[in-house]
Amino acid sequence: MPSDCAINLQLSGRLCVVVGAGRIGRHKAERFLDAGASVRLIDPLGQKILPPDGAEMVNREYRTGDLDGALLAVAATNRPEVNRQVAEDARRSGLLVSVVDNRAASDFSLPAVRQQGQLRLTVSTAGLSPALARVVADRLFETLGPGWDLLLELAGCLRGWQLTHPEHTAYNSSILRQLIDRGLVEELADSRFDLVDQLLTETCGAGCTLADLGLKLPREHDR
Hints:
- The protein has 3 domains: 1-110, Rossmann fold (3-Layer(aba) Sandwich); 112-144; 148-221, no CATH class.
- The longest helix has 17 residues, at 148-164.
- It is elongated, with a radius of gyration of 22 Å.
- By secondary structure, the chain is of the alpha/beta class.
- The chain has helices spanning 23-34, 80-93, 130-144, 148-164, 173-181, 184-189, 193-204, 210-213; strands spanning 15-19, 38-42, 56-58, 70-75, 96-99, 112-116, 119-123.
């Protein structure tokens, strides 16, 4: 069986339809809302359910046509025939669809996500066991500790610096590994920015400091 293709979708302002407002459906809706999507949640028992903030609640049975204008859909009811209809309608309309009770009929699954700043860790089990994906994500995230969100900001600045540097200063994954191995993450986490500057200049060369990179650190990390 081919493996999944991992992909990050930009959902801001795009319509995502979730059919079924049970625990799983609401969780999917919350994930889409967090990504800035417009979410339509459809369930005949919607008036008895508190939908996630920002979701459009449609209190009736699913109807063909409810997916119009959507980018993707999730079939999350406890009725296989409804989920099957959602999947069929989505395919006819060229939408991506996830069917919670039928992995083989799904185009995508949502990974477990843990986030520190803009650094996002995702773990997927290809839909086989979302619970295991959450456990693995928790375990891996615990190993990161603080400072990695600042490292991401720094790495982005280093990349821009290298691309515009007149001497084409070297910057690649090996440079990042050297900085990490020499304790850069820990120095960032402890706000020891003088030592960060020392590491940067020793590893990347003169003219490479936080100030040179134009990195504006969050106030809460300043001393």
